[in-house]
TrEMBL record:
<keyword id="KW-1133">Transmembrane helix</keyword>
<keyword id="KW-0378">Hydrolase</keyword>
<comment type="similarity">
    <text>Belongs to the RNase H family.</text>
</comment>
<feature type="transmembrane region" description="Helical">
    <location>
        <begin position="440"/>
        <end position="458"/>
    </location>
</feature>
<keyword id="KW-0479">Metal-binding</keyword>
<dbReference type="GO" id="GO:0046872">
    <property type="term" value="F:metal ion binding"/>
</dbReference>
<dbReference type="Pfam" id="PF01693">
    <property type="entry name" value="Cauli_VI"/>
</dbReference>
<comment type="function">
    <text>Endonuclease that specifically degrades the RNA of RNA-DNA hybrids.</text>
</comment>
<dbReference type="InterPro" id="IPR038765">
    <property type="entry name" value="Papain-like_cys_pep_sf"/>
</dbReference>
<feature type="compositionally biased region" description="Basic residues">
    <location>
        <begin position="80"/>
        <end position="89"/>
    </location>
</feature>
<protein>
    <recommendedName>
        <fullName>Ribonuclease H</fullName>
        <ecNumber>3.1.26.4</ecNumber>
    </recommendedName>
</protein>
<dbReference type="InterPro" id="IPR009027">
    <property type="entry name" value="Ribosomal_bL9/RNase_H1_N"/>
</dbReference>
<keyword id="KW-0540">Nuclease</keyword>
<dbReference type="InterPro" id="IPR037056">
    <property type="entry name" value="RNase_H1_N_sf"/>
</dbReference>
<keyword id="KW-0472">Membrane</keyword>
<dbReference type="GO" id="GO:0004523">
    <property type="term" value="F:RNA-DNA hybrid ribonuclease activity"/>
</dbReference>
<keyword id="KW-0255">Endonuclease</keyword>
Length: 460
């Protein structure tokens, strides 16, 4: 055996030597038979010059060679350049985001049935006392209407009070709330414009009772695109009169209905010539041209009443005072477009603005304590301030608070998480009451003195 020869090569060579062709011609065989009579006798063939056909068998060396050649042909070509890292497409990233619901689903019927509860029993038990009384009163009234032969329309009527700057002349002196609107309110569906106006009036009442400075809420009765387009001078004069009436305020909150279901909250700072549009909708095409022109005219009239020297920031275009309109303010947005939740977002943002102004009335040690605090139910509050009840004051027990406000309508109480905040709120409320108490006798005394003086002059 050759030492330089590999064992596998020696083994393959031995197998090739022992390999025998499967075909061998017979020795000495000569074909001489004629198939036809005219066929000549073929010549004798030389058997020594016979060439064997190629072997059809596979030897180990043939198999090894074919396998090696196939591996070389199928081998991946070498690449000197590295492949770039694949990046995710923007569509893949958007598809991986979790969609958040703007409202809580309620396992109940989608439409209100007359004479049936608006919510399941376990949901009714979790309502606040005010909302539960409204729910039960509507249910009782509907059952009575079903027994009547000539039932009236199921509706609630609220009278607009004076002293809050809301429109109280016919036909805006009454707010009509259908039972269907209450059903939509309880199920977080699209809110009617009348219900948004009623909530705005309630918040304006709270601002007046708590003596909150620097902020005022305007009546959204005229704040529609139709009025801004066809009655622009009237609307500008109405806004100007409201600003002059509350000239000691710095921020004015104005709900504006672009359409029947699209609501945008406006923050108007006239002393800074600034208007911020808090719009939660995802639609990009919004036309505020008529509204901008109306607010600019209202600002010009307001400046003419209070004077230019009161302005902290002034902006003019062609010699006229105009507002700085911020229509794309990065506020809280809806997760889905056109889901009927714009009025809900406007109310949520309105409450956040009022709460931030209320925090300014607290002592400096408490101003930053209630930031980003989640709203809780009345039962989870620790201290309660009774504003209108049998005995107004601060209470720690929820049952005592409920007994004090029993049979009192409106916002007669509020809950707070700390005793210091509750006492501060109640002290501000009492201070406002004392000012009102002294104002009326003073006016009466002045009138009496004037009458006495006139009588003395006439008699003498």
């Amino acid at each position: 055996m050759d030492i330089d020869q590999a064992p596998i090569d020696t083994f393959i060579a031995e197998l090739d030597a022992d390999a025998v062709s499967p075909y061998k011609p017979p020795a000495g065989h000569i074909l001489k038979k004629k198939l036809f009579l005219s066929q000549e006798t073929p010549e004798q063939e030389d058997t020594t010059a016979f060439t064997a056909p190629p072997r059809v068998g596979l030897t180990p060396r043939t198999l090894l060679g074919a396998t090696t050649e196939g591996m070389k042909q199928n081998a991946a070509p070498s690449c000197s350049k590295k492949k770039g890292r694949k990046r995710k497409k923007s569509g893949d990233v958007a598809a991986s985001k979790i969609v958040v619901n703007d409202k809580l689903p309620t396992p109940w019927r989608k439409l209100h049935h007359l004479g049936e509860p608006m919510l399941p029993a376990h949901y009714v038990n979790k309502l606040t006392p005010d909302m539960r009384s409204v729910h039960d009163a509507i249910l009782t009234k509907e059952k009575l209407l079903l027994q009547d032969r000539n039932p009236s329309y199921p509706i609630l009527i609220a009278k607009v009070p004076t002293g809050f700057g809301f429109v109280n002349t016919y036909p805006a002196d009454l707010i009509f709330i259908r039972y269907e609107d209450i059903f939509r309110l309880l199920h977080m569906q699209q809110l009617d414009r009348s219900l948004v106006r009623l909530i705005s009036l309630s918040m304006a009442h709270d601002i007046a009772m708590e003596n909150t400075t620097h902020i005022a809420i305007m009546d959204p009765y005229y704040m529609t695109p139709t009025v801004a387009q066809t009655e622009q001078a009237f609307l500008a004069n109405y806004i100007k009169n409201f600003l002059v009436l509350n000239k000691d305020k710095n921020c004015f909150v104005i709900p504006y209905f672009r359409e029947f279901k699209y609501c945008t909250l406006l923050l108007f700072h006239p002393y800074h010539s600034h208007v911020t549009y808090l719009d939660s909708g995802l639609d990009k095409e919004k036309d505020f041209t008529d509204l901008k022109s109306t607010l600019d005219k209202a600002l010009s009239g307001f400046i003419a009443e209070v004077g230019v020297n009161k302005l902290r920031h002034e902006k003019k275009v062609k010699g006229c005072h105009v507002c700085n309109h911020i229509t794309k303010f990065p506020c809280l947005k809806q997760s889905v477009d056109d889901n009927g939740m714009e009025a809900w977002f406007a109310i949520l943002q309105m409450r956040a603005v009022v709460r931030s102004q209320n925090d300014l009335l607290l002592p400096s040690a408490l101003q930053g304590k209630f930031v980003n605090m989640a709203d809780t139910t009345d039962e989870n509050m620790t201290y309660y301030v009774v504003y209108h009840g049998r005995v107004p004051g601060v209470y720690e027990d929820w049952e005592d608070c409920r007994r004090q406000v029993h049979r009192f309508s409106g916002n007669s109480y509020k809950g707070y998480t700390t005793l210091e905040e509750a006492e501060t709120r109640y002290a501000n409320f009492r201070a406002g009451q004392r000012r009102e108490m002294w104002r009326t006798p003073f006016i009466v005394m002045m009138l009496a003195a004037t009458v006495s003086l006139v009588y003395y002059v006439i008699v003498v």
